Amino acid sequence: MLDLSMNSLSGPIPPELGKLEVLMFVNFSHNQFSGAIPVSIASMQSLTMFDVSYNFLEGSIPKGIRNASAEWFLHNKDLCGDLIGISPCNLPLADHRRKHQKIILSIGLPMFAAAISVVVACVIAFFICRKKVSQRTDDVNKRDVFSVWSFDGKMAFEDIINATDNFDEKHCIGEGSSGIVYKAELPDEQVVAVKKLPWRR
């Protein structure tokens, strides 16, 4: 029995291993072996287990390995063979590329969709915030037009007197039965209409 599993061994599997004809159990799983499986392994007549799963092996699995199981060769870089559960070696290059493309698409598409969803959500949130800010600004502007009345009455009156040059006729924009309307441009550059009611005793 030769059990070298989980030892972080790397490099190719030595072809000299095939000379150990009486060896029955070989476990090279969970290592970093690379390259092809030596053809000499098939000459080991006493071999009942040859586990090389979870490595970086590639190429064809030698024919003639006694009682070979697909589980011995799973999770490698690119092994192929005639075992059920292992990709056949006679696949055209285009099929191998298609297989890799499917793997890439199965991983890449969900990530791409998630990224697009995040971008769309950010854009929607930006426009919603911008709309709220715009509405808030409009409300403030609308309130500012009449904010003069929230100040001290004397200050507001002085601003109106100065803006209309003491209700000079050149600022008059209309006249009705209840009074004269003047245009007043306040110090904060807001323009308002002011109606001067006739004085009565």
Automatic annotation (TrEMBL):
Its EC number is 2.7.11.1. It is a single-pass membrane protein. Its main location: membrane. Coiled coil: none annotated. It is found in: Cell membrane. It holds the Pfam family LRR_1. GO terms for molecular function: ATP binding; protein serine/threonine kinase activity. InterPro entries: Kinase-like_dom_sf (IPR011009), Leu-rich_rpt (IPR001611), LRR_dom_sf (IPR032675), Protein_kinase_ATP_BS (IPR017441), Ser_Thr_Kinases_DiverseReg (IPR051420). It is an enzyme of class 2 (transferase). One of its GO terms (cellular component) is plasma membrane. ATP binds at residue 196. This is non-specific serine/threonine protein kinase. The lineage of its organism: Eukaryota, Viridiplantae, Streptophyta, Embryophyta, Tracheophyta.
